[in-house]
Amino acid sequence: ALAGIDYTIVIVYLLFIVWIGLYVQRKTKENVESFFLGSRSIPWWALGASGMASNLDVSGTMINTALVYALGVNGFFVEIRGGVTLALAFLMIYSGKWNRRSQVMTLAEWMELRFGPGKQGALARILAALSLLIKTIAAITYFAIGSGKFLGEILGMDDFLASFVMIALSMVYTVASGLAGVVYTDLAQGIIILFTIVAVCIRAVAEAALPASFSVSVPLQDGGFASLNTTRADWTDPIPPWTLSGLPEGNDYQSFERFGVIIMFYMLKIILEGSGGLESGYMMQRYFAAKSDSDCGRMSLMWMLLLAFRWPLIGAFAMLGIQYGMDHGAPIEDPERVLPIVVAQMIPTGLKGFLVAGLCSAAMSTFDSTINGAAAYWVQDIYRTHVNPHASQKQLVHQGRIASVAIVSLGLAFSLMVKNINQVWGWINLGLGAGLLAPLVVRFYWWRLNGYGFAAGMSAGLVAALIQMGVWPHWLEYDAFLWSIGFSSVAMFSVTMVTEPTPTPVLEKFYYRTRPFGFWGPAKTQIDRNTKKKIEDENTRDAVSTPFAVLFQLSLFLAMMSLVFFSFTAFAALLCIAIACGVFLYAVWYRHIDDPEITIAHADSEQEIEAVEMRDGRAMLEHVDDD
Questions:
Q1: Backbone angles phi, psi at 229, to 5 degrees
Q2: Alpha carbon distances (Å) from 88 to 13, 24, 26, 92, 108
Q3: Which of 126, 195, 436, 468 is deepest in the core (most CB within 10 A)?
Q4: What is the model's pLDDT at position 557?
Q5: What's the gap between Cα 204 and its chain centre?
Q6: DSSP state, 220?
Q7: Which residues contact 305 (CB under 8 A, 6 or more apart)?
Q8: What are the angstrom distances between the C-alpha of 66 and each of 216, 318, 370, 466, 546?
Q9: How does DSSP assign 245-271, residue by residue?
Q10: How far is CA 364 from CA 50, 279, 342, 360, in A?
Q11: Which residues contact 217 (CB under 8 A, 6 or more apart)?
């Protein structure tokens, strides 16, 4: 239990964070762009630091600590599925700036730029908004479960009540101040988080000396747990094996046993996710809020460098969990309880208060970003577009606050039905996420994809993911992924090929503004040769740089964790790889980050686009009549 000084530290800190959010609210304008994008005036370093704080959530830290505790460094490779946030490498090099160039407020609103203001764009937009709202509610459920487990263990409270208190505090300033309040409270939270990381790592290095062999525990599918013997060499080895051997029968990690296959599968998922610009509301919101292409790159680099500190923290918690088991004669049974047990039992008074405050910071920074990003879907893509097109700025901000409360209430309600963090995290990433992935990727690379095909793919993927969770909840992760993405892809391509293409003026407007690589023949016919050459040069640099950015991020994160494990040979090798990749990225990518943006003039009046859509629609009907 926390001592009086610990409670005092936590309470003072939480009140301070709420005060910052309310103070920022007094300095911001009462309009929808300010509420959701901070008027696109927030500096890149603040957005990057805020992104790091938002990614370092309690639920993610608990499940990552559980996996590293049970599987060693192999647990890091499992979290390529989402926890490593490897999509940052793609966002840093190119997909982040592609989204910023759209100058929209939400990913769903982006669909109108891509498919036009007519029926195609409207259908794609509403389906994207509904699908992403459902995914956000699932994410809040996941965050609530993890935060409840952590705070319930530490404070001796009911898990649901603990998560409710945490979310309620986050909502006070999120609902009041919008993105600006989120970012600047995240900055304060990031400082506490970094202090926490240093303190825990020092504690682990001083007190947790891993012996040559020791025992951990893994969960079983029947709800029990089984002890697992391992060695220090295997547990800290940064080279993943092809198969995970020695796991007990009926364990809950059986989908990881074909380890080489699962890592390649996760990498494929991340390549698709990163190439599609990511569908995460709060991450994309920061790119929509960036001032320029160069700010997108610098913001992502800052985000990545700060997020690297997460992995020595996770490694330190896992080491302390193993030490606690050795001190008490048996390993901690539930890997998902390692984090709260370590905080409650192995951190001294005073430091414990700062540590709990830091982990509360991690929880609140994730909640506030997720809530603010999700509310934008309701306001911009549903209420403003379909319910009240003439709403005032004050009404829109009011709707954003109402939506925030409603979304959180639904997430909390669903958290009462799910108890396993890994189960819901895996479904979000590889069931629901896979169902939305195909249309989100293809939209950037193939001109022929139209709004009808996009909407069909999103709908089919969403339905497939919900069916899988309801009927076959214990499917292996890659089975759920293939089911959802397969169902979505078939629907997307089938509907696209039997409906009319997106009008050429719409494609030209999108391509001229975004300039992605891929198959954009009809959209590029009017561009002069010199401009085409500039676009091709930029896209070639980005395509060549992306694999090096991925390797840079992986090697940097692994190097940081190896340092805490005292695996100095692995640390030196990984650091050399990171430095070599960094030098290449500077020479090929970063030196060009401030190059003038390419501009292409285009007459893109809505009247012209609507006229073309009507003409193409009539032509298609006449063609059908002739047949």
A1: -85, 140
A2: 30, 28, 32, 6, 20
A3: 436
A4: 97
A5: 28
A6: B
A7: 556
A8: 10, 7, 23, 26, 30
A9: --PPTTBTTGGGSSHHHHHHHHHHHHH
A10: 12, 21, 21, 6
A11: 70, 225, 226, 227, 228, 325, 331, 332, 333, 334, 335
Tokens linked to 518: 């891929």
Give the position of tokens 């938002």: 54
CA gap 307, 303 in Å, rounded: 6
**Mean pLDDT in residue range 465-491:** 83
Is the pLDDT score of 224 beyond 80? yes
Dihedral angle computed from the Cα positions of residues 473, 133, 60 and 332, in that order, rounded to the nearest 10 degrees: -40
pTM of the full predicted structure? 0.84
**pLDDT tens, residue by residue, 509-557:** 999 999 999 999 888 888 888 988 999 999 999 999 999 999 999 999 9
The tally of CA atoms less than 13 A away on the side-chain side of residue 501 is 12
The arithmetic mean of pLDDT across residues 394-399, rounded, is 85
Structure tokens at 332: 């901690």
Contact 262, 277 (CB under 8 A): no
Residue pair 131/280 in contact by the 8 Å Cβ criterion: no
Nearest to 365 by CA among 561, 589, 169: 169
* pLDDT band for position 478 (cuts 50, 70, 90): confident
Kindly provide the b/e burial profile for residues 297-310, where b requires at least 16 CB atoms within 10 angstroms of the residue's own CB.
Answer: bbbbbbbbebbbbb
- Looking at residue 51, its pLDDT comes to 83
Print the SS3 string covering 160-200: HHHHHHHHHHHHHHHHHHHHHHHHHHHHHHHHHHHHHHHHH
**CA dihedral of residues 322, 328, 331, 336 (deg, nearest 10):** -80
Helix axis angle, 451-471 to 119-155, nearest 10°: 30
Name the nearest CA neighbour of 85 among 550, 433, 396: 550
Does 181 have pLDDT greater than 80? no
Percent of the chain whose predicted confidence (pLDDT) is above 70: 87
Compute CA 432 distance to the chain's CA centroid, rounded to the nearest angstrom: 13
Of 293, 273, 279, 236, which is closest to residue 97 (Cα–Cα)? 293
State yes or no: pLDDT of 317 exceeds 90.
yes
3-class secondary structure per residue, 278-296: CCCHHHHHHHHCCCCHHHH
Helices (H) and strands (E) in the chain, counts: 26, 2
pLDDT per residue as tens digits for the range 280-304: 566 787 888 899 999 999 999 999 9
Please give the backbone phi and psi of residue 519, each rounded to the nearest 5 degrees, phi first: -100, 95
Which residues does 314 contact at the CB level (< 8 Å), separation at least 6?
61, 64, 65, 68, 561
Residue 526's φ and ψ, nearest 5 degrees, are -95, 5
